[in-house]
Amino acid sequence: MKYSGLHTMLRLIFVNVFVILTLHTCVFASNDFDWFWFVYEKGNYYNSTYAVYRPLYLKNIYTDESFTASLMPVLYWKYTTQRQHTTKGVFGFYESVDYWGPQHYENDTGLFPFLLYGTSTEQKDKYFHLWPFGGSIKGKLATDSITTYIFPGVALFFLYPTSSYYVLAVYLVASLVPVYVHYTSKDYDAHGILWPLIQWGKSPIRDDLRIMPLYAYSKKKGFYNNYSYGLLYNVRTEYIGVDTMHTVFFVPLYARRWLESGKAESSSLLWPFFSWGYNDKHGNVEINFPWPFVQIRDCDDPYIYKRIYFPFYGKYTEKNSSTFFITPLYFVLEKDNKEYQSYYSLYGILFWYFKRDYASEHQRYGKHWRFYKLWPLFHYEFNDRGDSSFALFSIMPFRDEEGYERLYQPFFSIIEYSKQSNGDRRFGLLLRTYFQSWNDNYFAMKIPFIVSYTEKDKIMNHISLLLSFFSYTDDDTVQELCIGWIPVYRNVKDKKAYEARIKKLASLRNAEGNATLLDSRFLYMAGVLPGATVYSLRF
Questions:
Q1: Cα angle for residues 387, 65, 42 (degrees, 5° grid)
Q2: How far from each other are the two terminal CA atoms of the chain, in whole angstroms?
Q3: How remote is the C-alpha of 488 from its chain's centroid?
Q4: What's the CA gap between 336 and 352, in Å, rounded?
């Protein structure tokens, strides 16, 4: 996959931030989890590994896919699988999709509606579209190809400037209308002038014509016939097996739809506010009087039960799921299937209670999982495997623990605590100004720039003060004392393991194609460039 210049620059910055955060004097991490203040964190989370440089970079790696993000939703976020890469950004207006088969590769990229283009190993799949000039788009909007020419409405912004938001909205809509459009979908071929005002198209079984607002028809042999007069009077005939359905709609006063067999019928007055109908085949009866305030429906196949008296009361049940509310302040969502039962409730939007009960143990949630949140003050969750977590504050108005919460939550953390079923625990205070990680055999704590301390099997193996100005290390590979960042005593216990760690740090220089933004003299002094001793500097 090819990266833009901005993307490449960001990746380079991330590499150098990583170098800075890992060049700490005289010790090496002895645990899968590591961190620096609220800025950097890496570790394992159930079936994934992750690294995050807040708020610039986040990457979660799963068995056969990954998720990457930077300042989402402003900058970008990306989903990667074995067959497809999807990158989105700029609040979703930018999208780039790479996908490939055994002998085929395609890329679709666009900043809607300004620029859309596609590359491919197949010439027929390449396209380019630049608004407001036009171009071609392929494989989008349920079509094989779309070709447009000139969007003249853009000139309104320059010829008749205005400060009225209503007029600007009209200009915006007009700027999306092309002088000419041609599109195809399988064997259907259509043309338009000032689309959607004028359009005509044909295929062996389909025929369409539209001249808005005067007249339109659409026919598909053996399927339907539609006619519209002045956009107000509409007639549709639809062939359904051995039966025929008729629709007459005089907008918005009256509408009626019925089967010739009499097995189904529905009517509407002042659509969409008043409507009612039945269907004998599915055992369906529905009344909206007036919609959306009163909605009543009973259906046997599929099973549906709906009683909504908005905004005071509502219950909607379909197959194995159900939604219930009393006033806009209490909501309940339930689901019951073969895998699990779930119950989500929100009280006044501020208090959340979620639970899941599984038929067999889930890797993340166990068999029984509970989650409580008083937004934006705190959240607390636990399961029957022994996993639990607590955070004060918890400001996200939605739950997304591996995306938005992982990237932004520590910026607002006053107190946080978590425990995993493997015995690992973590505790932090004041945006992780004090943070510790521990289990039965390991303990580590840090106060940024001041002190860090690590012990293994209840024996100290590292301590450092003042950006490691003073530090002492005694682990499986080396025993070392540093004063003023200078090692005054060193005893290498495992030369191969020690050299492997040295090489690992030095390899950071070669990350991302041997490119770095750091001054080479600094890297030399830090020991990353050849010719100098490499130390692991730890805050």
A1: 50
A2: 36
A3: 51
A4: 19
> At 412, phi and psi to the nearest 5?
-120, 15
What does the alpha-carbon distance between residue 501 and residue 30 come to, in Å, rounded to a whole number? 11
Residue 138's nearest CA partner among 163, 165, 180, 107 is 107
How far is it, in rounded angstroms, from Cα 470 to Cα 190? Answer: 76
**Six-digit token pair at 312?**
């005071």
- Are the C-beta atoms of 482 and 490 separated by less than 8 Å? no
What is the residue whose two structure tokens read 């969409």?
Answer: 272
Q: Pairing state of beta strands 340-347 and 233-240?
A: unpaired
Q: Which H helix or E strand runs over 174?
A: helix 165-174
**SS3 letters across 72-111:** CCCCEEEEECCCEEEEEEHHHCEEEEEEEECCEEEEEEEE
Is this structure's pTM higher than 0.85? no
- Which token pair is 510? 């070669």
Cα angle at 301 between 300 and 306, to 5 degrees?
Answer: 55
Tokens of 103: 């002998």
What are the pLDDT tens digits along the chain (539 aa)?
444 455 555 555 554 544 444 444 334 444 578 899 999 999 988 888 999 999 999 999 998 899 999 999 999 999 999 888 999 999 988 988 888 766 677 888 888 888 998 888 888 888 999 999 999 998 887 888 999 999 999 999 999 998 888 999 999 999 999 999 999 999 999 999 999 999 999 999 999 999 999 999 999 999 999 999 998 999 999 999 899 999 999 999 999 999 999 999 999 999 999 999 999 989 999 999 999 999 999 999 889 999 999 989 999 999 889 999 998 789 999 999 889 999 999 998 899 999 999 999 988 899 999 999 999 999 999 999 999 999 999 999 888 989 999 999 999 999 999 999 888 999 999 999 999 999 999 999 999 999 999 999 888 989 999 888 898 988 888 888 989 888 888 888 888 877 777 776 666 545 444 433 333 333 333 333 333 333 333 33
- The number of angstroms, rounded, from the C-alpha of 218 to the middle of its chain's C-alpha atoms is 38
